[in-house]
């Protein structure tokens, strides 16, 4: 079964807050839900499918359906870490294609900033029943040093430099300056990045994403409903998802799961990387972006450093405008599942509703890409391709 053209993104909403000490996670979920429904021109009573991940108060669908008083006939609580909501958009499209629901609501929310999470720099508490725990936990694996291993290996193998990685943060900051809600709205220079403190060699503090509260939501509907709404129609045309793991020890640190999910999504959509006008790339760290750009086929493997240093990620300047809201590197990264905001900004671009200073001309094809879990060990990947109709 293909999902190409079987579902449309009719509503999107990103919560404007980046610090919500006065709100519960459930309330943030409800607020973004109402925002996306209003954007679509629909109401809570229209929703018959609900989709969330591990950020929702658990067990997510049961708790949140009651909290928002939803009458549902289909639910999904897939947890894939940071890429959960890129995958859930495709899951919603598949459910609609199968007739399981007509109006799917997808919500994300979190308060890591208010809760003081040292995301990425402290070892995660691991279930001792996890099979990898005895082999990895004693070494103090954190998110930051796991990604740093990938960066160090990429530098060794391909000659990538810290200055080249810094250009990814620079590009994100060029876009964030036009976003009034961005946590880091100042334009950053390469020297700012490489002179910032080292968090995990070779990654500097400014190679890392921000930590924010907030959330976002999508409303995805069947074609018949989309045609009746007043919002510009954005069609889902291709998707792919996978898990990349250690494979018993034969692990390539410089390749992400996008090398699998990208070709799957492109094949279903019937388009090529060169056809894409805008990309939303999951950007927990600068190395995350570099590897995914290569693995999706936007440049040759190992050539990502030169590609980004040439300014190709900057809207209005380069060949591949990315994360025009500032992304996780500068705008927001709520609940460690930033894939949601990647889909939202792609929809804005396709609708022509991004900030005028970063709006991509004639943007008719966009791609959202996410990774989740640990790039240096095992992680999930999802790719979503959308088209303006």
Write the layout of secondary structure elements.
Layout: E1 8-14, H1 25-40, E2 49-51, H2 60-67, E3 74-76, H3 84-97, E4 103-110, H4 133-136, H5 143-158, H6 162-176, H7 190-194, E5 198-200, E6 203-204, E7 214-221, H8 223-226, E8 234-244, H9 258-269, E9 278-281, H10 286-295, H11 304-309, H12 327-330, H13 339-351, E10 365-373, E11 379-388
Parallel strand pairs: 2-3, 2-4, 9-10
Antiparallel strand pairs: 1-7, 1-8, 4-7, 5-6, 8-11, 10-11
Number of DSSP E strands:
11
Span of the ends, CA to CA: 21 Å
> Largest beta sheet, briefly?
9 strands, mixed
Put simply, the count of helices is: 13
Lateral strand order in the biggest sheet: 3-2-4-7-1-8-11-10-9
Strand content: 15-25%
Average per-residue pLDDT, rounded, comes to 95
Pick out the low-confidence regions: none
Please describe what this structure looks like.
33% of the residues lie in helices and 17% in strands. By secondary structure, it is α/β, with parallel strands linked by helices. Strands 3-2-4-7-1-8-11-10-9 form a nine-stranded mixed beta sheet, sandwiched between helices. Helix 6 (162-176) packs across helix 10. The protein is globular. The two termini are 21 Å apart. The model has no long low-confidence stretch (mean pLDDT 95).
What would you say about this model in short?
With 389 residues, this protein is an alpha/beta fold. It contains 13 helices and 11 strands.
Task: Please describe the structure with a list of short key phrases separated by commas or semicolons.
single chain, 389 residues, alpha/beta, nine-stranded mixed sheet, two-stranded antiparallel sheet, 13 helices, 33% helix, globular
